[in-house]
Write a structure and sequence with these properties.
Elements lengths: L1 H74 L8 H15 L3 H15 L13 H11 L7
Helix pairs in contact: 1-2
Length: about 150
């Protein structure tokens, strides 16, 4: 009688473990999908911000270009056109960020760094561990009671 009961308990425990494993795997998959969704939304916001900034900066650049060119011609001082050079770089960067392939080039470079320059990505003092977190928490906590 005890053997049948323990065999049933073992089968029940095994099915419970399989359920828990499947449930934790499903939870991990959901977390990964959620993190990816958040990353995609943040990138979309960054690109949208860049496009919006480009509209305002492009207007400013156009007005500045016309004004500085007119001033340089009127006063016969070509030095007045010089501010257009750095402003042109900013405009080109913002255009590349909003409508060009800067994001793809950045992604490719990040992948290259992850593959070939792994040592530059290491944290000081190594990976954070549970013990180091507990030690810091104990040091900061005024109400911690050791048992």
């Amino acid at each position: 009688m005890g053997f049948i009961f323990s065999k049933s308990m073992n089968e029940n425990m095994k099915s419970q473990q399989e359920f828990m494993l499947m449930n934790s795997r499903l939870q991990l998959e959901r977390q990964l999908i959620m993190q990816n969704e958040m990353r995609e939304r943040q990138m979309a916001m960054q690109i949208a911000w860049s496009r919006e900034f480009l509209k305002y900066f492009g207007s400013f650049f156009g007005i500045a270009a016309i004004s500085l060119t007119a001033g340089a011609i009127k006063r016969k001082k070509p030095v007045l056109i010089f501010p257009m050079v750095p402003l042109g770089f900013v405009l080109a960067y913002q255009y590349d960020m909003g409508y060009g392939n800067l994001i793809h080039r950045m992604k490719d470079e990040a992948e290259n760094i992850l593959e070939t320059e792994k040592s530059k990505l290491q944290l000081p003092k190594g990976m954070i561990t549970f013990e180091s977190l507990e030690k810091a928490r104990r040091e900061q906590s005024k109400f911690f009671i050791d048992k």
